[in-house]
Amino acid sequence: MVDKGRSDKIKGKAKEMAGRATSDHEQELEGKLEQARGEAKRIRGKAQERAEKAMRSDRRDGRA
């Protein structure tokens, strides 16, 4: 199953909120970093899907 960073974003948000609730700034920042990592995975996944779609389209059109 490909979640494209969704689990990283969810875990990161939970860490951020826990850090905020306990005034643990390091944990809060770790959570934000994990969310950013999840977003990067999502963007990478979208780009990969577009590239694969373009390659399939080129093959059907006889370009590759």
Task: Set out the fold topology.
Elements: H1 6-21, H2 25-60
Helix pairs in contact: 1-2
Helix content: over 70%
Order of helices and strands: HH
How many H/I helices? 2
| Poorly predicted segments | none
Q: What is the first-to-last residue Cα distance?
A: 29 Å
Portion in strands: under 5%
Q: Which structural class fits the helix and strand makeup?
A: mainly alpha
Tell me the number of strands. Answer: 0
What composes the largest sheet?
none
Rg for CA atoms: 18 Å
Mean pLDDT over the full residue set: 91
Overall body shape: rod-shaped
What does this structure look like?
The protein is mostly helical and 64 residues long. It has 2 helices and no strands. The chain has helices at 6-21, 25-60. Helix 1 packs antiparallel against helix 2. The chain is rod-shaped. The relative contact order is 0.17.
Short key terms for the protein model shown above:
64 residues, mainly alpha, 2 helices, 81% helix
Task: Provide a compact summary of the structure.
It is built from two helices and no strands.
